Amino acid sequence: MLGLMQSQPLLISSMIDFAERHHGEGEIVSRRVEGDIHRCTYKDIAGRSRQVANALDAMKLAFGDRVATLAWNGYRHLELYFGVSGSGRVLHTLNPRLHPDQIVWIANHSEDQVLCFDMTFLPIVKAVHARCTTIKHFIALCDAASLPADSGIPGLQSYEAWMGSQASKYTWPEFDENSASSMCYTSGTTGNPKAALYSHRSTILHAWAGAMPDALNMSARDSVLPVVPMFHVNAWGLPYSAAMTGAKMVFPGPAMDGKSIFDLIESENVTFAAGVPTVWQMMLGHMQQGGLRFSTLKRTVIGGSACPPAMIAAFNDDYGVEVLHAWGMTEMSPLGTVCTLKNKHTAMDASQKMAVRIKQGRGIYGVDMKIVDDLGAELPWDGKAFGDLLVKGPWVIREYFKGEGGSPLVNGWFPTGDVATIDPDGYLQITDRSKDVIKSGGEWISSIDVENIAMAHPAVAMAACIGMKHPKWDERPVVVVVKKPGAEVSREALLAFFEGKTAKWQIPDDVIFIDAIPLGATGKMQKVKLRETLKDYQLPTA
Prior knowledge:
The chain is of the alpha/beta class. Among the domains are: 34-171, Rossmann fold (3-Layer(aba) Sandwich); 438-533, ANL, C-terminal domain (GMP Synthetase, Chain A, domain 3), CATH 3.30.300. It is 28% helix and 24% strand. It has helices at residues 13-23, 42-58, 75-86, 100-110, 122-128, 159-164, 200-211, 238-245, 258-267, 277-290, 309-319, 350-357, 447-455, 491-498, 527-533; strands spanning 27-31, 37-41, 66-70, 90-93, 112-117, 137-140, 157-158, 180-186, 194-199, 223-226, 248-251, 272-275, 299-302, 322-328, 335-338, 361-363, 368-372, 387-392, 414-422, 427-433, 438-440, 443-445, 460-470, 474-483, 510-513. It has a 13-stranded mixed sheet, with helices on both faces. A hairpin with a 2-residue loop joins strand 21 and strand 22 (443-445). Helix 1 packs antiparallel against helix 2, helix 1 packs across helix 3 and helix 1 packs across helix 8 (238-245). The protein is globular, with a radius of gyration of 24 Å. The N and C termini lie far apart (74 Å).
């Protein structure tokens, strides 16, 4: 027997319609490439999204055609989020931090038809456009007066001229909710990048779950600053959750330095911000130097890579800001877990709460997870056993675009490549990436644990732990460190700092000081490049 409820497809267009009808006055604030602060409302975004849809129709783009973006976080990018997907096309957010050759490969592989880009990235587009064989239309996200006289890009149009002449009335099409809505390529796989292809259904369910109180807890009373780029897994779904809840949106544009982010938080009464640890490190450094305080910020979600406990403590203890440690990946849309406390934790003392907060959190509704041993046998949730982490759920990838790499699933579960423990309360703790875990004398050493201890030292700005070959122990950990500006710490002092904080055999054998640790396009440390840089390094013999 089937239920007797109405059947209505879950489509992204319904989110902006809802935001317009119920939160039409809600503010969207953007720091533009032009340097000024732009203000509009959900009603404005909705009307201009419909203009985008009309403009795409005028190009005679087919259902499912890909429209690419090379853009910062801003109102025009948000209009493309809804106008492209809502009209039945697929939004493809390109990462401008990639090498131009990678951008060309990805654009050709995805068969992008249109490229919309911020003027910041004009040099990139000039360098790649002739090699992007499927792109027929280039749109600069600016007004006509800002277009260069000779861009070198045939047929280049300004966004405002392209969509501005279109009607703001548009009837959103209805179609299967499993239709593709957006795509994002991940560099976290071997070989060429592979694309996760999200559906309307998966995107809405992800946004819904992410907005829940025990996840990101978003509401119409929030002012939300996504520092995480809109080109990085759709800004963790925040633009969709914000439209769904009516939250004010504050976009930082290209100004991602600590001072600019802090100033925007204060001027726009931001209550909730989201970003990777490297961004918050810059902002906290700016605040500490100037003796600054937050007026309105209540919580921040930190993901992308493990958040050092010292950073959680700084936000919580020094500034009264709750840190929501989160974990996920491109193949998961990306949210998998968020570290919110349970009722049982509220009476605990600060140190007991911190022991929970440093974990990546518990699965949000819709995400199932398990850890398995080398033979695939499921391991207990006891907080001690660690194994390979597998996940499944309605916004977890089934296969990559065009079937690249074959089916990634193992008996219906997606292998994340992470090694983790899960405690009896369901809290996940990532101990390492499977390719980064260090095996020493038959025992495993978590590179993340070593990095977290190093990062707690007041002179350390960034730390990466890698395993180096050892004739007796197979591998031994060394910690590669970038010192804070003007700070000094010796090798001996830093190694002494580890004593009493971890088992003696887990203390690194050496400290290597360098000027900068290589970071990938999403702000994660690139340990492969680090190992290549240190390929001639020899461990101390003593």
